[in-house]
From TrEMBL:
SUPFAM superfamilies registered for this protein in UniProt: FAD/NAD(P)-binding domain
GO molecular function, one term: L-aspartate oxidase activity
Gene3D superfamilies, sorted: FAD/NAD(P)-binding domain (3.50.50.60)
Name of the protein described by the UniProt record: FAD-dependent oxidoreductase
Coiled coil segments of this chain: none
Transmembrane segments: none
Cross-referenced InterPro entries: FAD/NAD-bd_sf, NadB
Superkingdom, natural source: Bacteria
Source organism of the structure: Vagococcus lutrae
One Pfam match: FAD_oxidored
Record GO biological process: NAD+ biosynthetic process
Length: 519
């Protein structure tokens, strides 16, 4: 039997941050990832950073800002970046407008591995790829070991702490940790935008992203997907016609808007939305065509959840999430604007796949721990606040910001999109009411279906993951449990100082400007 200080289940974006933080503190860590790429959202799922408008100045941990800086430096050092962009501190490789740092998933993978590399080399961090925690052993409310399937064998690994950094909170049911899924009712949470009735299977849509470039010529049309005719005709009550079209509800207003590949008058330029490489950034003739990642309204999948249902049903929905993305690509290539764009080329080279589709779907909503403290809409949502700021949490372990952004759901409900104030991450949301040594490391903290809509984004997931690694490390060093830290004022103050020394900001500056930064 092997023994480590910390087992991290899942190599998600939060999982990487957890591993980096714990390794920096000298802990022996095993990270278990079920695919060939670590990094989750920014790598295997193909989602360029979704970030708030303050991110260039404040709102990310020091290590998250280092990750962003390394991405920019990598392009400037290794690509023929134009001279006038070399000194641009806000250099955006793709000029996508979802973020000031849209870039290739494979470059993110390179950067994350570089950041982890020193700790892999000295033996503090081990990563098992294509591995999965199959079960755990417990002694009362303490997880003692995990049974891990790896390289066609099963290994039992003991650890003092277990971090659940899986995309769906897979360690929670395995460990008997209490959790909630889906959308809570108004009676449960008192939230303005909660449902009338609790529905544990009502979860945000998932999206199977893909990369394409619009070439000058050539025909790259994929084979007609098996269910293309079905999805061409299938209608959802809240959607304006076929999902395979340019029309979609604008999330904030629900007014019908139309997308396009060129942003012609009266349309939204979706090609530029998540563009990850722009030829305008590089020396002449280096890049033949811009490359974008398609994570657009039209390829969201809300047909059913991917967990908490029988395995065969989950597999069906998993496959259909990719199928609708294939159908949308085929529609773009053959029917969009009455002629199609057969020169729209799938780019597997930037995704690490043959077909240009991401290795895994982007899953917005996880199982969520039932925690000592749950973040509600009333704590952060502008509509429910009586002040112009979010709730202040005495046990803050980080900060974040994003609007409350919920995509259409498997309960067949449309977008929920509204303003939230810059917020804090309370330690209480990271402590399960049971299971003393399990710590959530990404989207599985104590939020609701509503507040998950802004705690799920890249800088916040990284912050949560980093804190999970530091929380496990501090607990080991002090010989206490996470619950003790929150309940003991002096310990909490000491832990918050530990976080600050590690580069984590606990509160927003009081003079925060509201205007957007020009990128």
């Amino acid at each position: 039997m092997q023994k480590v200080d910390i087992v991290i289940a899942g190599g998600s974006f939060g999982g990487v941050a957890a591993a980096l933080a714990a390794a920096k503190k000298g802990k022996k860590v095993l990270m278990v990832e079920d695919s060939l790429w670590i990094g989750g959202q920014v790598t295997s799922q193909g989602v360029p950073p979704d970030e708030h408008t303050y991110i260039e100045e404040v709102g990310g941990t020091s290590s998250y800002m280092e990750y962003r800086r390394r991405v920019r430096d990598y392009y400037k050092k290794n690509y023929p970046v134009k001279e006038d962009e070399q000194d641009n501190p806000y250099f955006n490789p793709g000029k996508g407008w979802v973020s000031s740092i849209c870039h290739e998933p494979r470059v993110s993978l390179k950067i994350l591995l570089d950041m982890l590399s020193p700790y892999i080399s000295n033996g503090q961090l081990t990563i098992w790829y294509r591995a999965e925690v199959k079960s755990v052993k417990k002694n009362d409310d303490i997880v003692t070991s995990a049974i891990i399937h790896y390289a066609n064998e099963e290994y039992e690994v003991e650890a003092d702490y277990f971090i659940d950094a899986t995309e769906c909170g897979d360690l929670l049911p395995l460990s008997g940790t209490d959790y909630v899924t889906g959308s809570e009712s108004k009676e449960m949470t008192g939230e303005n935008h909660a449902c009338e009735h609790y529905d544990p299977l009502d979860m945000q849509a998932v999206t199977w992203c893909f990369a394409v470039s619009l070439e000058e010529d050539g025909d790259y049309t994929i084979d007609k997907p098996e269910r293309y005719d079905y999805y061409k005709q299938h209608l959802s009550e809240f959607w304006p016609g076929s999902q395979l079209s340019w029309a979609y509800p604008e999330p904030h207003t629900l007014n019908i808007v139309h997308g396009s590949l060129d942003g012609r008058e009266g349309t939204i330029n979706l090609f530029d939305y998540r563009k990850i490489l722009s030829k305008d950034n590089f020396e002449k003739d280096y890049l033949k065509a811009d490359i974008t990642l398609v994570n657009w309204p039209q390829n969201d999948y809300w047909g059913g959840p991917l967990y908490e249902i029988p395995e065969d049903e989950a597999r069906y929905h998993y496959n259909q999430a990719k199928e609708i993305s294939k159908c949308f690509l085929y529609w773009l290539q053959t029917e969009a604007d009455g002629k199609g764009y057969p020169n729209l080329k799938p780019r597997g080279d930037v995704m690490g796949t043959k077909d240009g589709f991401a290795m895994k779907p982007y899953i917005r909503e996880s199982r969520r721990i039932i925690s000592e403290f749950t973040v509600l809409e009333e704590h952060i949502g502008a509509e429910m606040r009586t002040t112009q700021t979010a709730e202040t949490f005495y046990d803050s372990v980080g900060i974040g910001h994003y609007h409350l952004d919920l995509h259409p759901s498997t309960g067949q409900r449309t977008y929920i999109d509204m303003e939230s104030y810059p917020f804090q991450i309370p330690l209480g949301s990271m402590i399960p009411i049971k299971t003393e040594n399990l710590i959530p490391g990404c989207k599985n903290i104590g939020t609701t279906h509503i507040t998950n809509g802004c705690y799920r984004l890249h800088p916040v997931e990284w912050n949560i993951g980093e804190v999970s690694g530091l929380l496990a490390s501090f607990s080991l060093e002090k010989g206490v449990r996470p619950r003790d830290i929150r309940q003991n004022t002096s310990l909490l103050i000491e832990f918050q100082s530990y976080l600050i020394q590690s580069g984590i900001t606990l509160e927003w500056p009081s003079d925060l400007e509201s205007e957007e930064i020009e990128w």
